[in-house]
Amino acid sequence: MDAHLEPWTMLGYLAGRNKARMRLGVAVTDTGRRNPAVTAQAVASLHLLTKGRAVLGIGTGERESNAPYGVDWSKPVARFEEAVATIRALWDSGGELVTRDSPFFPLHNATFALPPYQGKWPEIWIAAHGPRMMRATGRYADGWFPGTTRATEYGEQLEIVRAAASDAGRDPQAITPALIRFIVTGRSRDEIDEVVDSDIAKVFTLNSPAKDWERHGAQHPLGADFTGVQDLIPQLIDEQTALSYAAKVPRSLVQELFAVGTPDEVIEQIAEFRDHGLRYLVVGNAGAIQPSMRKSAYATTPYVKVVRGLRKL
To answer: Which residues form the Luciferase-like domain (predicted)?
Structure first.
């Protein structure tokens, strides 16, 4: 279930293999299980070693990555805010001793001697979906990096981020409006439907909060007050239970969670985000989640067409 390589170790490996200008980051780093002083050092190290290519994607994390490992999950947003403030305090210390009170990460004569690369620290991109996280993005971040928002909401949420930046005395236009989106496309409608109707895609919608299910006329299997991916612990759901949940998923919810359609339709969907302020897009090929398409050119050729089209937006 948790067969994932440690991300910052993996980025070090990728940096050694790729000497070009590819930016390197994680979408996104946990502020619960990982102490922010360790994160600050890891990202600053990668930034120096790659000559300025590191980006710190960061968020609260999820219950599944914290509670099972003994990390208190009672105040994830408060913990997140303190983690980002700690990282900024260390980076801005100029090598001087840092003492900072914090209910989560107090510093007592801490040192941080690594210099920024050519005077610039890695950009901080925050995965923010709720109002409090958006306001934190405005105060601390260089980029706003949501994943599950709708195009019709994107512009309004961006204004929350920018207003918070202005209130903090920062330039609101300096914050990059970004988005991560997984794409389901194919050469035919049948290929697209194969992925949309797959159990894997349907189970993925358990990451959506109950309010999103309700908007599509369904009740979330985990309860009417379920908040979504932050509180999901998937290892506690056995296969048969997951399949029973998948049977209840509205098709329209899958289509909302991913960018679904022919290459032209997907490009049109992303263009709507652009019209609401999006300026930086990170995409993934969700077509590969369907076993029959993993090793097929059918899963990659239309996706490549989408990527090429997106570059022209």
So the answer is: 5-278
